[in-house]
Amino acid sequence: MNEMSKPKTDNAPMMSVEDFEAAIRAVGAERYHDKHPFHHLLHGGKLNKGQVQAWALNRYCYQAGVPRKDAALISRLHDRELRREWLHRIHDHDGLPPEEPGGIERWMILTDGLGLDRDYVCSREGALPATKFAVEAYVHFVREQPLTIAIASSLTELFAPKIHKERIAGMLENYPDYIDDKVMAYFKRRLTQAPRDATFALNYVLQNAANRAEQDACVAAVEFKCNVLWAQLDALFHAYYEPGNVPPGAFKPEDV
Amino acid sequence: MNEMSKPKTDNAPMMSVEDFEAAIRAVGAERYHDKHPFHHLLHGGKLNKGQVQAWALNRYCYQAGVPRKDAALISRLHDRELRREWLHRIHDHDGLPPEEPGGIERWMILTDGLGLDRDYVCSREGALPATKFAVEAYVHFVREQPLTIAIASSLTELFAPKIHKERIAGMLENYPDYIDDKVMAYFKRRLTQAPRDATFALNYVLQNAANRAEQDACVAAVEFKCNVLWAQLDALFHAYYEPGNVPPGAFKPEDV
Fold this sequence. Notes:
The structure is a homodimer of 256-residue chains. By secondary structure, the first copy, chain A, is mainly α. Chain A contains 11 helices and no strands. Chain A is globular, with a radius of gyration of 19 Å. Chain A starts with 16 loop residues before the first helix and ends in a 15-residue tail after the last helix.
């Protein structure tokens, strides 16, 4: 979000709903993390087990951050219907006993499958500082930005089903020793959850951005969120794909 | 929370769990809002319908603030089990379809019974500024204070069952024209919800306050919360019991 380099649009007319949606979707086409080299390595079976462990361990921080950012949003909503609509996102991640274990529980099945200790994963002690900084930046963004812009930051979900499909197929094919259908449950579930949520949030943003500056800020929020995701993969790539770069205190795989 | 007037306890030893709990409970005995003259007027049948309307309309802001402060707390919790435990408080207030309509919905049955328009109530436009300031102070306190202290601010629930019982009996007896069992549903439900929540939060605070300064801050948090409740009744008393004091823009009952 380099404000200096953006065209000045303060006096520009509002985008039509169609152009606004296209601008949001263009962000994904340009910079969603399915374009990141670390993802190509992950899905293409080019990582060793320690590197997949590092990915799952760090990505846990993001998974666990999502219900916190959703709660941060709810804490700002005076509209009860909107709070009620948004609440199911917390259920999707943290679970809703007795039926729904939640996405984080499914993520732990993945880290279990990879042989990682649950307490260690949940402690976030082995996660890269850059991962934690990126995740907390997301929580703070949602807590602090104007509401429509905060909601817009969730719209990377528009781009998620494709990456999840690629991931399910690629990881099942390439890591048969520790990835199976049960372990991939998280991503399968997100195939149905994410589109429902994304449609709601997209409609909210399209209808509520009140002027061109706010429309631009919503597009920038999607860029910001892509940066949050991209930065996590940059950090993983640097620390675990290039040899010798694991920072002090971070997880050290046995085979790296 | 006048820090200047407090005894200096930085070097004091930690309170025993029993003394700490007693100090928390002493706050309720001294300054919970069941001691406020407006409550005696309300429960004693000394208010006219317009004054009861003003109370219900203003208290709506508090009811609607509670799930937001609970979401603010959840947004700060890295412990998933604690998030899951705290989440049912949001369900209690905002509801959990299809079974649970939630406490705010029950509150609207009360404001319906009093002949208030739902949209007007939910808009909070007619509420006293002092009410809204007090409620938002609570949300911000929970968002910003250290976790144990934020949780301690919920402990006025320890004192709530008594006031709810008095309120149910007093209002049913004294306002038969617009208060009936159905309208009192909110308070009846809270008779079972509040003790369960209060017990959990009390145990959390007793176990997690790490030193004397934090114990003192937890006691002060209960005082703060009592102030949040008391200030709302002060504002109601001034605006609606004393004649001629309704501030500009606030709800004007027909019979005041």
